[in-house]
Specification:
The chain has ten helices and eight strands. It is of the alpha+beta class. The protein has a four-stranded antiparallel β-sheet.
Length: 274
């Protein structure tokens, strides 16, 4: 098995090195049906949704450890609790190329968090909701009894379960979870390199600074990067298939419709990532 995986990684690396900028074929997340000739969607405005997608993939109700579309991230690319994490195979292959290119320029990229399924995201959300985990020094269960107000506070940086891009296996967090890290020294070097080169490998930053182009959604996250050739189609499919009836099963889910989380948060990303 190890030999077969080694051959697979080598073949992917050779294939990518010999190809132009267009991404490899993507796999349909229903029955592993290959979608041939998925076009490069980086920097384009036209994105084709998947014809049909098992909604579990859109809302995170699956186990990436047992799903054949996902691959375990080698420990060399991760640290701490991210060890043993998973990405979609295509996203991992692209990240390996990104990582190698960054190293050649003296920049080390380390994944801190990757695929998070519904249960994983629910633990994060409910720890904040119930006050087990403080948010900006506050126990929100005591400080903000109103569900909509409390949810809006958590949504500054954390997604509701069933709405996170981390469900898709296309997104990951890099190097540090503080914007301040990326403004000076080594962090600034990392961020400048990513802003300059990540798009070449298919990656974009969905949560840029808020402004006229991105008035809604989460606060800026300089650490969060997304493999766009897959994520753009996932987003288009999500917005056409998922309803608020699917965003349930966690504390505070009643606040989702009132906050319009599909429009304001799932779609509230940098325009280049749509």
């Amino acid at each position: 098995m190890k030999n077969r995986l080694l051959i697979w990684y080598i073949s992917v690396g050779v294939w990518c090195a010999c190809q132009p900028a267009s991404p490899p074929a993507a796999y349909h997340p229903v029955a592993s049906v290959v979608i041939q000739d998925l076009p490069s969607v980086i920097g384009t405005t036209e994105v084709t949704p998947f014809d049909t997608v098992d909604i579990r993939y859109l809302t995170g109700r699956f186990d990436p450890a047992t799903d054949p579309l996902f691959a375990r991230i080698p420990d060399a690319y991760t640290t701490g609790s991210a060890r043993g994490g998973y990405l979609r195979q295509e996203a991992l292959a692209a990240f390996e190329q990104l990582h190698a290119a960054a190293l050649r320029d003296g920049v080390r990229l380390t994944i801190l968090s990757a695929t998070r399924n519904f249960d994983y995201q629910r633990r994060i959300w409910e720890d904040k909701w119930n006050g087990t985990r403080l948010v900006e020094g506050q126990n929100l269960a005591r400080a903000l009894p109103d569900p909509v107000t409390r949810a809006r506070k958590i949504l500054r940086y954390s997604a509701m379960p069933a709405t996170s891009r981390h469900h898709w296996g296309t997104d990951f967090d890099l190097n540090a979870l503080e914007n301040s890290y990326f403004t000076t020294g080594e962090g600034l070097k990392v961020y400048t390199w990513l802003r300059t080169h990540a798009a070449t490998f298919g990656f974009g930053q969905p949560y840029t600074a808020k402004g006229p182009a991105r008035p809604e959604g989460y606060e800026e996250e300089k650490w969060h990067w997304s493999y766009l050739p897959l994520a753009k189609s996932y987003l288009a499919t999500y917005t056409s298939q998922v309803t608020y009836a699917d965003i349930t099963g966690f504390a505070g889910d009643e606040a989702a419709p009132g906050l319009d989380v599909i429009q304001a948060y799932v779609q509230g990303i940098d325009p280049t990532c749509r």
